[in-house]
Every structure is written in C-alpha cells, then in structure tokens.
Fold each of these.
Amino acid sequence: MKVQASLVALTLMLGTVFGPPARAADAIVIKFSHVVAPNTPKGKAADYFKKLAEERTKGRVKVEVYPNSQLYKDREEIEALQLGAVQMLAPSLSKFGPLGVRAFELFDLPYIFPNKETLYRVMDGEIGKKLFKLLEPKGIIGLEYWDNGFKHMSANRPLRKVEDFKGLKMRIQSSKVLEAQMKALGANPQVMAFSEVYSALQQGVVDGTENPISNLYTQKMHEVQKHLTLSQHGYLGYAVIVNKNFWNGLPDDLRKTLEKAMQDATRYEREIAQKENDDALAAVRKAGTTEVYLLPLQERLNWWKVLLPVHREFEDKIGRDLIQAAYRVAADVEREGKDK
Ligand code: LMR
C-alpha cells in the first residue's frame, strides 16, 4: 500500500511541476481510469461517454480514457481520484469498503438480486441515492451506476457441490462480504488487484476466482481456468464517480452537458452489458479450454443454504434497514410480475 500511495504522490508532484493535471491547452481534461479491457461493458461505455462528452461540449472538454489498470490499480485509483490525479472512475461496488463506506457491500451479498429489475430499482432508487451520499464526505460524487451482470465461479477443479470449494484459494475483490462468502463455502479468500489475477491463476498463487464472463474472457482467464460453473451467486456492478471539487468547480453549463452525456452513456452501458456477457460465454465455449457447468436445481439450493446466512452476518456492517429495503424492492418486483 505504501508503494501505491507514493506512486500517486509522485504523479501529483509531477503534475505540480509540469502544470495542473486537469487542463491541457484550453480544454478541460477528464482523466477516466479503469481496470478492465476496452471491449467490456465498462470499457465500451467509458469510450462512449468520451465521444458524447467531447462532441457535445464541442471540444471544451477532453476525456482521456485509460483502460486495463494502465494508470492505476484497484485501490490506488480511488486514492488518485481523491487526490485529483484523475477525475473520473468506475470502480466495482465491491471496492468501496476500504474507503470506509461498507454499505456498498450490500451489492455483494450472495443472491440479493433475484433479477435485473430489482437491481436497477435498487441502484436508481432511494438506496442508490443514499449510498452516493455516503461518498460526499470522502470528496467523491457518485454520478451513475453501471452494470456487468451476475458472477460465476471458476477454478482448476470442477465446482459442482459446495464441498468442492474446500481449501481452494479463491481471489476476491476487497470486500468483507466476499471474504465471508468464500469462507462460508469452505474456500480460502485472497484479496488481489484485478490486474494481478491472470498471472496469479496462471502461476497457481490462487486456484480460482469469481467474475462475470465478460471479465473472465477479456482477461483471458479462461486460458488458465479449466472449470467454470454458471452459478450466478452474486452480482458485479459499478459506480461512476468523480472528484467532488473538480466536478463542482466546472462551469454549470458544462457540468449539465456532462451529466446528460453520462446518463446517455449509462443507458448504453446497461443495454450492452447482457449481450457482452452472452457473447463472452459463447467465446469461452468456443475456445474449448474451459468446461462450462450449469448447476442443477438441487445443487443451487445447497449453495443457497450455505450462502444466505452471510446476509444476517452483515446486518450490522451494511445496515439492517438497507438490506430490508433491498428485500422489499425484490418483493415489489415479484408481486408486480405476478399481477401482470
Ligand atoms: C474485479 O476486480 O474483479 C472487478 O471489479 C473488475 C472490474 O472492474 O470489473
């Protein structure tokens, strides 16, 4: 962590020596850093936002997108945003715990979202707004929520029964809920930056991981994972966030234009997320390096039984009210579906 912190500090220092980081010539520069490949839902939406923002501001704003952890890795990128070395990020919702906002780990609870409709209502409704409010004292503004769909488990051993996880070293993001989830399955969770996962899998530092297929495929993890279980046991989404001082310091008209561009990029992101993941699954099957396994109903029920107690365990940390509110949204969605 010390090394990461000093890297950020060095970047900032260079920024001070060579001029302010957020402006180049006349244009206001937004550095948008992320950790995934350009051909993922997040990567494509970041590029689309750049296009809309630059067109609609007629060049007054320039958006520089840095994919694949080119600029910063997971933990450092949030620190870099707070320090103003970058202006925009879209970290996964599982990465806000280390910042001290554990409530975001609501999204990590296993099986919390029975469908996408529930998820969108949680993100776009009161719960999502409440979570964004928690970021403001940290110097961060949340703009929108992006989607990358449900996660699946992969390893070099078949993962069919809960017992198959016993003793496996599983890479996780920096979330206490994910840690508890892997422990509940009998695995050994290891927090690791996204950019390090491929080589850790390749070298056997960890045995497996969890991901939406778009991430698995675009990082070539399928080449080093022999087994993939389509478990849909959890969810991965993003919060598009900006440095608060930077954002509030923008001229009003520009900020409004950018907010609208971000809303349009969000609509686009959510439209493509499912297809990107479906295409990635087809590509994994085609590559033939990974056996894809569908959990039969009885096994799914066993996973549920083992993983649902994680909700209770985290009532204090996440907030019982918040968890109950998410359940209510799920119940509303189900009732409305039945009423139709
Ligand atoms: C991960 O670290 O597995 C993901 O959060 C990466 C991402 O941003 O999708």
Note: The two ends are 52 Å apart (CA to CA).
Amino acid sequence: MLNIVLFGPPGAGKGTQSEKIIEKYDLIHLSTGDIFRSNIKGETDLGNLAKSYMDKGQLVPDEVTIKLLESEVAKHPSAKGFIFDGFPRTSPQAEALDKFLDLRKTSITYMIALDVPEDELKTRLMKRAKTSGRADDADPKVIQHRIDTYNRETAPVKDFYAAQKKYYGILGLGTIDNIFTAICKVLDKA
Ligand code: ADP
C-alpha cells in the first residue's frame, strides 16, 4: 500500500495537490476537514460539535477526530492506499494512526509537507474566503488562530515522521503543476 500524510499549514495547498495525487496513484482521499464540513452541512451531531471548534479556528478534540478517521479507513477494505489530508494534526493523532495502521498490517509510507511562508498563507486564505463560503477563512483573527494552532500543536508532528525517516519537505510556492512534479518525485521512489 502507498499511504501518504499530506501535511502543511492552512492554505498550503493540501486539497489541491490531493486531487492530483489521488488521480495519478489511485488512492483514497481522506480529508478530516472535508468530512467535518459535510457533517456540518448534513446537520449531524458530529457536525454540530465540529462546528463549535472550527468556527473559532480551534482543533476538534483528538478523541472525536481519531474515531472518525478510523471509521473512514475501515470503509475502504480493498484500497490501494490512502492520502491523509489534515490528519494527523497532533502528536496523539499521529501515534493513534501508527497503531491503527499497524493492526491492519500497513503503515505510513511518506509524509509530504508543503512549506509556505505565513504571509502567503494569509493572502491565499483571504482569497479563498471569497469563493469557499468557509467562515474560518473570512475572519483574519480566526486565520491567525489557525496558523498559531498549527505552529504550536501540528508542526511538531513533522518530528514524529522525521524520526522514522519518512519526512519530505517540499516548497509549496510556484505553479500547481511544478509542486505536483516535486511531490511525484518523492512518491515514485516507493
Ligand atoms: P485548513 O488546513 O485549510 O485549515 P481543513 O479543512 O483541513 O483546513 O480543516 C478545517 C478545520 O477542521 C480545522 O481548523 C479544525 O478545526 C478541523 N480539523 C480538521 N482536521 C482536524 C484534525 N485532524 N484534528 C482536529 N481538528 C481538525
């Protein structure tokens, strides 16, 4: 299996690159943000809970997020592999994912981390707010909170994969196609 963690701060381009990766490598795309948003739309209990955190730019609690992710993976028993987009976002999530994949006799192949300077992230998120309808993109205070949360709680997850020699950092600037080519160079080594 090819299992990828696609990593990076809000606005780094994870969603855009995921679309291209799943097409080329025939993987299942699991975006925790997308799953939460579809639950919000469907007004489920999970959606209501997630919304109370997301609108403020806070992380949804680990317990809820880990359970959700595991149930989504279990829905695809014959997948060739997965691309995890927006997960793991905390060290406990990374540990839980490793244990869970281990039980299924598989593991993460690579973490691909998109590096983008903070000013560029803010510009992209403000621009995306015009079309995404996402409340968390529209408010500069919420954007700053998401970036701060990323730096404090999520960025350390890099070290978890670096210790396993699975970490690959890629500059998330330039054209979408050039960034994709750089990602493919890593994935084609698998
Ligand atoms: P972005 O990376 O652009 O901030 P996402 O769509 O990945 O957007 O996530 C949106 C929001 O969903 C996050 O700010 C957070 O509140 C919640 N979320 C997504 N993934 C996770 C996760 N793994 N753990 C906790 N909260 C999450």
Note: Strands lie at 4-7, 28-31, 82-85, 110-115, 167-171.
Amino acid sequence: MKTFVHRGQITKVVFGSGTRSRIPEEADALGCRRVLVLCTPDQTDRAGRMADLLGAAAAGTFTGAAPHTPVEVTEKAVAHARSVAADAVLAVGGGSTVGLGKAITARTGLPQLALPTTYAGSEMTPILGETEGGSKTTRRLTDVRPRTVVYDVELTHTLPAAVSVVSGVNAMAHAVEALYARDGDPVAFLMAGEALDALARSLPLIARRPDDVEARADALYGAWLAGTCLGTVGMALHHKVCHVLGGTFGLPHAEIHTVVLPHVVAYNAPAAGEAMARIARALPGDDPADALFDLAGRLGAPRALRDLGMPESGIERAAELVVRDGYWNPRPVERRAVTALLTRAWAGERP
Ligand code: NAD
C-alpha cells in the first residue's frame, strides 16, 4: 500500500479552440471591471485585441514583460496598474508574461487571469521566480496562482516550430520529475504520464507542420497537465541544474531544459525504476535517456550547452552551485557525478 497526500488545484481551467472569446465572461465571473492586459513586446498586437475584446472592462495594456521577471519591470507594471486603477491582470503570453502577472499579484493582491501561448506551464503553479541585480530567486506563494486559465489552442499556432519544440520539452521535464517526486502521488503520476504521451506524439508532428491543428491541441493539453504536475509536486535535480544554468550564465530557459533533460534522466535512472518504465511507455526504446536525446535530435532542438553560449570554464562553477544547497533527488547529488553530467551536456554527448 502507498501512503500519499494529494493537493488539488484551485485554478479554473477552460480549454479549447477560440476560447479567448470567453475572457470577458471569465473576468466578469471574478468580479473584475478594469483588467490590465500584460504581454511581451512582440505580442503587443494580440494583447491589444484582447483589450478590445474586453471593451469597457479593459484598463489598457502593459507590453514590457521580459524573461526571468526582472523586478524593475514589475515595479513599472505595478505603478502602471495603480495609475489606471486596474482591479485584475490578464497575462497573454508564455512564462515571462505569466511571471509578471504573478509578481504583480504578489505585490498588489490583484487577481490574475492567464491566456497561455507557450507550453511552459507557469500558469498552473504557485512558483514565482524573479531576478534582481543579476540573481534569480524562486518562491512558492499559493496566492499568486492565476484564478482562471483559458487555454486557446489557436493562440499557439503562431509559436514558431523551433520555439514550440523546446517549450514542449520544457513541459516534458516537469512531467518527468513529477514521476519520481518525493511527494509524488497517484494523480500526479497519472497526469505526468499522460502529459508525456501527449507531448511525445505531438512535438514531432509540430516540428514538421507547425499548423497541425490536432497536434497543437495535443501539445497544449500535455503542457497543461505537465504544468499542473509542476504546481502540485516538488521537482528535483533537473530543475535545480536548469535554474543554476539560467541564473549563472543567462542561457535561454526552454533550451536549457531540452539539453539537460536526457542527462538527468540517465543520472536518476538507477534510482527511479517506475518513472523510467513510464517514460519508456511514452517514448519507446531500450533506454529513456537515449530516447529523450534522440527525440531532441529528431526535433532539430539543441543538444549541447556550448551551443547555447555556456563557457566550458563554467562547468565546475555550475557543479558547485548545484550541489551547494542540499535538496532531495532520487539519487544522491554528488559533485563528481554532476560535473560528469554537465561535461557531457556541455559537449552535446549522448547521456
Ligand atoms: P517566454 O514567455 O519568454 O516567450 C518566449 C518568446 O516567445 C517571447 O518573445 C514571446 O513573446 C514569444 N511568444 C510566446 N508565445 C508566442 C506565440 N504563441 N506566438 C509567437 N510568439 C510567442 O517563454 P516561456 O518559455 O514560455 O517562459 C520562460 C519563462 O517562464 C522563464 O522566465 C521561466 O523561468 C518562466 N517559467 C516559470 C515557471 C513557474 O512555474 N514559475 C514555469 C515555467 C517557466
């Protein structure tokens, strides 16, 4: 018998195609009358259309969301939200925009609605990562979860194939670590397995044809489940390594996850048999780490940290940071083994 604790989600989720048209009624259901729409600079037009759709319930747009939620951007956005008397924010975008929404919620208490446009999954988590003075800190704050998440598959059609595949593997990484989480539970395990199945079958189709409607729906469904896993159970070595590499060398988020995942799976394989068996169901092959490495190759995704701009001289520093703060992982985190893992990932070698 397995003893477990399962934490249910409080977020309302609407999933479908064309569902963004429901945003006004979802805002109304939360009692929101002045919604500030958030986006990154390159989704300005889309955010403007959402403000138009909200009509009298819109309080304008803030178009300055940036990767890793810089505190100076948040401060500007909070000042803007106050100046227009916003009573809610609507994040239209990926993890960067949802992150800004969470940072605003943390400072003002304003509720967030989210309309995700990538597969990062931040909209389903209570995790707020922020950068200040070049260093990134992460907190779990239950209240920063968006109240309502509307997944509209149509919005993902514009995500370029190359960005889609790394964003999709980023989602797979949440699912993989949920399979062996210390506080894992049967529901999280089911969601993680289903997420891996959906992403493993859809990403190769999207890489070939980014306008494949069914594959896009499948990938977003997998991303929702994977994000829910990330928000439900604790992550381990993979997320720690990616956090260190992103924070220390400023490497791109989803690409780091794509390169590192096969190597961490190889590292943890001896200590996580049940998880490995489930990954192998989604990605058939003799070895789950090899299957993930081959998948990245087939998708044309990066497989070497050096190709993302990490200096070879950074390997030892990264290993030191990864092992410095003790934390749980199915296999103990040892400095020499982590250095070997990073060396292979840096060079793009098979795990
Ligand atoms: P992103 O939000 O930075 O988006 C990447 C780029 O793609 C941006 O320029 C964006 O404008 C563009 N884009 C997004 N959707 C698009 C679409 N449909 N069509 C065309 N262009 C589009 O990238 P991301 O990978 O979604 O998020 C990364 C950030 O999210 C990182 O800062 C990461 O730390 C954070 N994150 C946080 C959590 C969490 O739980 N807190 C989880 C995952 C990621």
Note: Residues 12-156 form a domain with the Rossmann fold fold (CATH 3.40.50.1970).
Amino acid sequence: MKKIVVFTGAGVSADSGLSTFRDADGLWANYRIEDVCTPEALARNRALVIEFYNKRRKELLSTKPNPAHIAIAELEQHFDVEVVTQNVDDLHERAGSTRVTHLHGELRKLRSERNSELIVPIEGWEQHLDDRAEDGSLLRPHIVFFGESVPMFDRATQIAAEADAMIVVGTSLAVYPAAMLVRYARSGVPIYVVDPGNPDTSMIRNPLAHIKARAAVGMPELAQQLIEEKES
Ligand code: APR
C-alpha cells in the first residue's frame, strides 16, 4: 500500500483556534522564546515557564480537531499513513490518526528533570510548581526547548525515507532540524505543501505542489484528490 508521510506544524491546528508561532498574532509575538522555551528559562524562572505551558494546555482542553486533522486521519483508510508533527497538541490523535511522531514533545505529558525517559501523562491542565516525578526530581513539561536535542528526529527521517508521497501542512519550515525532514524524502517522491502563506520551500528538491489554502480547506481537497487518483 502506498505510504504517505504527513509532516505538520502549528498551521494545521490554526483552524482549531490554536495560535501559530510566527504569524503576526503568533505565540512568539507575545512571548520571548528565551523566557519560556529554553532550559535556562526553566532554571531561571520556573514559574513563568510552567504557567506558559499550563495556559496552552488549558486552551487545548477546549479545542477540537478541525477538518484538516480529520482528513489526515481518514487517509488511513486508503493509504499507509504516518504523521510526523512539530506540534505538541494531541489533535491528530483525537482526530483518529494512529501513527503520530511528535518531534517537539507533547503538552499532555510531563517528564522528570533528571531522567528524560521518565515521562508521565498529566491529568487536566495544571502542573503545580512542586509536582515531582517518581525519581524524586521536579517534573517539567515534556517539550523540546530551543537548544535541546530532538530525540525523535532520527526516527522521523527513517519515516520520511519510506514515503511514496509527502504532505507538508502548516509549517514555516523555519526551525531545524525539523525542517530538514523534507530532504529525507527519496528523489522523485512528490511533496505537497498546504499553507496559505509562503513557507521556506527553498531546500525542497522533489516535485513540489503548493496548495495555497488554509489547512481546513486545502487538506480535505488534497486528500480527496489523492484518493481519486488511487481509485482511477
Ligand atoms: N492553515 C495552514 N497553514 C497555516 C494556517 C492555516 N489556517 N495559518 C497559518 N499557517 C501557516 C503559516 O503560513 C506558516 O507557514 O502555518 C505556518 C506556521 O509556522 P510557524 O508559526 O513557524 O509554526 P511551525 O512551523 O510549526 O514552528 C515550528 O517552531 O517555535 C518552534 O517548537 C516550535 O514546533 C514549533 C516550531
């Protein structure tokens, strides 16, 4: 069965009401990365970092998947689909996608500050400042901060190398190493970009089709096109 790898960023969740990072009203227009998304920030001002992720987790609880997430999940009925996402929300899973690799962590999980393998789900939205892991160390958001390694990237490159088609939805392709994923598709594998804006596609050498539309509109249309091509 043909394998489709769907590589997503914050834009796929924008139509669910979640902020992106680099759009005009994005998260990085309202917060400094060095205040809320670095190991130094967590050490220097733990309360602000915990509050930042608590706010995003609380917002996520009242958010639901949009037609883009649903179209991606429904593709599994026609193709061998794997999602590699930069997003830390769980909307792909809630839409029904069964194979999701999170490159930058997950909002709904916390982990030991001492042992990055000790990961626990969080009930509700609120992490308390003094919540501790079983190993006795303080818990922290299970998020990859800037300057930290991206442990799932190697696995993601293997997934990308298996793609017969790659769909890139809602990412500016501005953050590395995640953005490099488009370079791991085999030569000749078609890459479809679904984004109303202009992500940095300069490093894409494969056949490229840019569907300039919001994900909630463009993704269902692209899914339908791929299904019809398969059936024809
Ligand atoms: N539908 C599809 N794409 C959209 C929509 C929409 N409704 N709205 C915005 N976009 C596009 C923008 O045009 C942009 O290309 O989504 C992309 C969002 O880019 P960023 O805000 O940079 O988000 P992302 O690419 O996911 O950021 C990557 O940066 O800050 C880190 O860890 C964070 O995972 C994040 C990484």
Note: DSSP finds nine helices and nine strands in the chain.
